[in-house]
Amino acid sequence: xxxxxxxxxxxxxVDVWTxxxxxxxWCDEKRMEHQELPPEVGLxxxxxxxxxxxxxxxxxxxxxxxxxxxxxxxxxxxxxSVFQNCSVKVGEGWSLSCGTAHGGSHRLIxxxxxxxxxxxx
Length: 121
Known about the structure:
Number of helices: 0
Order of helices and strands: EEEEEEEEEE
């Protein structure tokens, strides 16, 4: 598990599951504001050659996050409560560059190095 906090408040957690046979990991988001069960059953499909990461989006005091599967060079098109129709490119060393003009920021937190920790958003 990776716990996600902001200041003194818990924002959510990422449950991490490991396959006993192949040792791949899968992630499942747990958001404090959404307590209902998701419509899909089971874990999301695993994309080969990717790393699980938490994509954090911030702008003018608003914050949102999502779990994503990425590899260097990927372009992530996403919408969240902070940005709509945003395009983010993953560069070397997991750096991010946004192709959409706005004053906010994006950052990645890799899941595997953060296992069993609390991460400040």
